[in-house]
Write a structure and sequence with these properties.
The protein is of the alpha+beta class and 315 residues long. The protein has two domains: 1-54, no CATH class; 66-311, Penicillin V Acylase, Chain A, CATH 3.60.60. It is 29% helix and 26% strand. It contains ten helices and 13 strands. Strands 3-4-5-6-7-8-9 form a seven-stranded antiparallel sheet, with helices on one face. Strand 3 and strand 4 form a beta hairpin. It starts with a helix and ends with a strand.
Length: 315
């Protein structure tokens, strides 16, 4: 909480009023999620309203910088796989957690997230996996939509098919731009797609002719409202995507591709730069590789160039 209070001090101020707004947005549809956050807060000795606000930290930071995270997906006759880096402030490394939830009457899901945040990356019992890139556009701002981390929780907890996932992601309103990549293994085949979310609406991005889908931090379909601010602010997003596509076409495996240090300054595999201001520090806090059909999940708890991937035990 201390790190987020410092990161959000200028853009959000006091967090508790924002937590009230998040609770109001969840109350009618998903009140059990409010209770879950309140329980986590009680166990951790934290203010539940502040923790609810942290679950909307993407929205509270919007339209801030997002030169972070690279996602790789592949689909073919052999199934589907999804891998990515998660880049964020190095002081948040101790908050990394792997959580498996099996609510009565619902399939289990496992998410790699931050302590107190309802979900982020992960997969579920029904053969669905999801990844995340942050995007920014000039229309971002406010808390009027569903927070992206809440949306990821609903996706993992309640979606078990490609159609379910598309219906959810295309049907919800958001106030901060993000891209959710979904890999699904279901009876009869596999699917892979990315849904670019923004306040103006959602757009679907499909794999290329080789079955590969690479996403970094810029829109591949122009946002329906506003302007994509990433390429101008952080042109590395264009270079990262180009480089990863080239490496995949050359036959490089996803985990090896995510360990590469291109482009200079803001590479795919990123190490903390002590020469910048505290708020501008980024590092690859983990890398994840998922096979939703197996199911199987591997995590490297640090930059994948020097951190081994380890298998996570699933139910």
């Amino acid at each position: 909480m201390t790190v987020y209070r410092r990161l959000l001090r200028e853009t959000a101020g006091d967090l508790a009023p924002h937590g009230d707004r998040v609770a109001a947005a969840l109350h009618d549809r998903w009140p059990e999620l409010i209770e879950e956050v309140e329980g986590i807060a009680a166990g951790a000795g934290q203010d539940p309203l502040e923790l609810l606000a942290i679950n909307a930290r993407t929205e509270l930071l919007a339209p801030g910088p997002a030169a972070e995270c690279s996602v790789i997906g592949r689909v073919g006759d052999g199934g589907v796989e999804l891998a990515q880096t998660w880049d964020w402030h190095p002081d948040l490394a101790p908050a990394r957690v792997v959580v498996t939830t099996a609510a009565p009457g619902r399939p289990w899901f496992t998410t790699v997230t931050e302590a107190g945040i309802l979900a982020k990356l992960g997969l579920n019992e029904l053969g669905l996996a999801c990844g995340l890139n942050f995007l920014t556009c000039s229309a971002d701002g406010g808390l009027e939509g569903v927070p992206i981390h809440v949306l990821l929780r609903i996706l993992l907890e309640r979606c078990g098919s490609a159609a379910d996932a598309l219906g959810l992601l295309l049907g919800e309103r958001v106030s901060a731009s993000s891209c959710v990549t979904v890999a699904v293994s279901e009876p009869g085949g596999a699917a892979l797609f990315a849904v670019e979310l923004s306040p103006g609406g959602a757009a679907v991005v499909w794999p290329d002719a080789d079955g590969c889908l690479v996403h970094t931090n810029h829109f591949l379909s122009p946002p329906a409202r506003g302007e994509d601010t990433q390429p101008r602010m952080y042109p590395s997003t264009l270079l990262r995507r180009w480089h990863l596509q080239r490496r995949l076409r050359a036959g490089t495996g996803s985990k090896l591709a995510l360990a590469e240090h291109f482009p200079a300054g803001e590479p795919v595999c990123r190490h903390a730069d002590e020469g910048v201001t505290w708020a501008e520090r980024y590092e690859t806090l983990l890398a994840i590789a998922m096979d939703p059909g197996a199911p199987a999940l591997e995590v490297a708890a640090g930059p994948p160039c020097c951190t081994p991937f380890r298998t996570v035990t699933l139910p």
